[in-house]
Amino acid sequence: MARFARFARFAIVGIDVHRVPIEVLERIAAAGRDGVRFARRARERLGGGECAALVTCNRVELAFAAKAGESAIDAASLAEAFHAALELEGGAPPLCVRVGEAALRHLLRVACSLESAALGEEQILGQVREAIGAARAADVAGPRLVAAFDLALRVGKRVRRETPLSDLGTDLARLALRHVRTELRAQTSAPVVLVGTGAMARSILAARPKDGRDGWLVVGRDGARAAAIAREFACLSQTQDAFLAAATPIRALVAATRVERPLIPAQLVLTRMAPGAGVVDLGLPRNVEPEARTHARLADLADLRALAGAHRAQLDATIARIEGWIDEALARRRRRDGAGLAILPQFHGAVS
pTM for the complete prediction? Predict the structure, then answer.
């Protein structure tokens, strides 16, 4: 019954990219960048227990396990502790609170990347591992949270090992990367250029495969913003004006910025890219002059959506398989604990 008690007092509170605009998420993530400090302050506010913060470009969440002897978790108190620990200026959006099995299921889905903006993105498993590792090292998390995170990591590793999920995402970021896959793996010093610093650009950087993370150049109108994103994702950066004025070779190009007319002229593609090189235009209006198609392998939004349709059935089957593994993991936990997590009090909703 000891393990059962651990998960009966488990909860997750926070927000993610599916529920708030990216600008709001960025502001809150900046406040919670020091995850250990965030978790420690929340723990103090709650008067004890265990805390671990998971802060990424997709989510800002706090996992909590109540201390021994406490049988109930108050959603309002968790939300208040979350807000207070971050010391947010200008208010904060309503938070989603999950308790008991709903919280544990959510954590497993996060580790499996089913909750990521870019379905199947590979960074999240490492981020989950680092979050619990840092909290444990700082002595703000203990055996209850470690047990929950260990379960999530085991299922997440199985997804990475036994499914092609990272190659099947039908989100635009993953489709864009699939289009330039050959160029990502090329052995050359020429960079893969990403024009844009918004939510789509972040999704693309987060979804990069292991064999295609090197040699990226982030280009943006605001040099400071481009540099900040480049540091976050271990890339180089350049201002938009400097990039357009340069003459250096480009390995591949992905354009995802807001413009009123094409920003990338066909002549730039002709003079700086190899014939047939991969170019992706995620803009609406277009970012790249359509004439670039005569020289490069250009994919626009219509091309990528057609590709998404071709892979939808395989993706649906893979997700169903992963959901089945999550159900099995939770069922094994119930049997091992000698009681049913399904009978735990659960809450899944917004708390302001």
Answer: 0.69
Q: In the chain, what percentage of residues exceed pLDDT 90?
A: 64
Residue 339 pLDDT exceeds 90: no
* 3-state SS assignment for residue 209: coil
Predicted pLDDT of residue 129: 96
First-to-last alpha carbon distance for the chain, in angstroms, is 34
Q: So what's the pLDDT on residue 25?
A: 84
* 181 in any annotated domain: yes
Output the domain CATH number for residue 287. 3.40.50.720
Residue type (1 letter), 303: D
3-state secondary structure at position 219: strand
Based on C-alpha coordinates, what's the Rg of the chain?
Answer: 22
* Cβ–Cβ < 8 Å for 286, 262: yes
Amino acid at 260: E
Instruction: Give the whole-angstrom CA distance, residue 154 versus residue 106.
Output: 14
Tens of pLDDT, residues 290-329: 999 999 999 998 888 887 777 788 889 999 999 999 999 9
- Domain of 177 in residue numbering reads as 172-299
Q: What is the pLDDT at residue 252?
A: 98
β 278-281/216-220 pair status:
unpaired
Number of domains in the chain: 2
DSSP string for 44-111: HHHTSSEEEEEE-SSEEEEEEEPPTT-----HHHHHHHHHHHHT-SS----EEEEETHHHHHHHHHHH
Give phi and psi for 241, each to the nearest 5.
-65, -40
In a domain, 34, yes or no: yes
Statement to judge: residues 38 and 132 lie in one domain = yes
Q: In what order do the strands lie in the sheet with 95-99?
A: 50-55, 59-65, 10-16, 95-99, 348-351
